[in-house]
Amino acid sequence: MTKKIEAIFREEKLHAVKEALYEIGIIGMNVMEVRGHGRQGGIELAGRTGTYRVDLLPRVQLNIILSDHNVEKTIATIQEAAQTGNIGDGLIFVYPVDEVIRIRTGE
Questions:
Q1: For residue 8, which of 66, 79, 62, 75 has the smallest C-alpha distance?
Q2: DSSP code for 105
Q3: 63, 5 in Cβ contact below 8 A?
Q4: What tens-digit pLDDT sequence spans the chain (107 residues)?
Q5: Contact at 8 Å (CB) between 83 and 3?
Q6: Would strands 2-10 and 57-67 be described as parallel, antiparallel, or unpaired?
Q7: What is the C-alpha to C-alpha distance for residues 64 and 62, in angstroms, rounded to an integer?
Q8: Radius of gyration of the chain from Cα atoms?
Q9: What is the DSSP pairing of strand 50-54 with strand 2-10?
Q10: How would you classify the pairing of strands 50-54 and 43-47?
């Protein structure tokens, strides 16, 4: 069986996550810049004219497709590398993948 791991985390943690995944042999991935917020609803910032709320925070979304035997180790690696201990560290989603077809060969 194949799984898709979708991890959304802080932009500044991308390099650490990528390097940690390379170390365990995970090299295929897609990365996208995304914006959003979780339960906290964003952050409040103070500027010269007062405070204002930023509700769509910049994050990175990492997508990886892999076989079942690599899933737990990959999740633990992402969690360890992306964690700061603060609110807004991110989320990891795991989805089943029914079929994967290589475009070049059709396999």
A1: 62
A2: T
A3: yes
A4: 799 999 999 999 999 999 999 999 999 999 999 998 777 776 666 767 777 677 788 999 999 999 999 999 999 999 999 999 988 899 999 999 999 899 999 98
A5: no
A6: antiparallel
A7: 7
A8: 17
A9: unpaired
A10: antiparallel
